[in-house]
């Protein structure tokens, strides 16, 4: 317990010094308690009363001077004041929430001293519950079926010291072992209570919880009873849903179908690519075959066009006779000249 107090100081104030021991005081709920801290009236300093709850910062409940002073601090249930040679902390009508560490701190000339470290344990009335029993659900449950869980709370009223009503909660922990989650809360006096035949002081209260089953309800259901500051859990009811097995099978079938569809799609893309390539290749070959006659016709036409060019040439020889003037030319030899001409058809070379 001292370790817990020291850790609380370390994580809240960052220090833990001069702690040798502490005193434990146990009181019942509703009782009064007084804690005392020695006060040196001859020094000039300050005194504080602190309360430390694990996980929280220290709480100041009262403060005063070390020398005599009339100052005091008062709240509805807590009073911190000076008395001769002491600085007391008085708590009236204690509650369970008053369970904590209490200590007095003296500060003189910047030196801090912890005094009268006390652990106050407030004990509440004991619950009269003797057992919490959960009924076993049907073996086969399917989605959509109605489900009713029952929680039986056995109590012994012969030595009942707590008059606080019972509050019943239902929790569910998933099949993946996750933390339980609250799913339902019963109102006060919502259970069916009856006296047990074996003993008139014994009582049995049955709390029922009903809902339609869904595929996500698989897990363990717990019944918890809160009363007199205590919480008691049942043994738990494990619910298995038949649909979970078929769902796993369906999931595997879906994965197989998806794999087959992807393979079919890939095969279709390959076939389409091959068809496109074949069509383009055949189209290119047909184009070459169709273009060959045209080229041959063009060459033949050119040859035929060149043939008339040579046939259309006409060669002719023209003779011109030149005579000298005078009568006496009859006995002379006639000299002749030849001239050649080229006639071409328009449009041909």
From TrEMBL:
Q: Where are the transmembrane segments?
A: 257-277
Cellular component terms per the entry's GO annotation: plasma membrane
Task: Report any one BP term from Gene Ontology.
Answer: response to bacterium
Which N-terminal residues, if any, form the signal peptide?
1-16
SMART domains referenced in this protein's UniProt entry, alphabetically = IG, IGv
Q: Where is the Ig-like domain?
A: 125-246
List keywords of the entry alphabetically. Answer: Cell membrane, Disulfide bond, Glycoprotein, Immunity, Membrane, Signal, Transmembrane, Transmembrane helix
Q: Where in the cell is it found?
A: Cell membrane
Q: Identify the SUPFAM superfamilies for this entry.
A: Immunoglobulin
Recorded hits in Gene3D superfamilies, A to Z, give: Immunoglobulins (2.60.40.10)
Matching InterPro entries:
Ig-like_dom, Ig-like_dom_sf, Ig-like_fold, Ig_sub, Ig_V-set, TCR_complex_component
How is this protein named in the record? Ig-like domain-containing protein
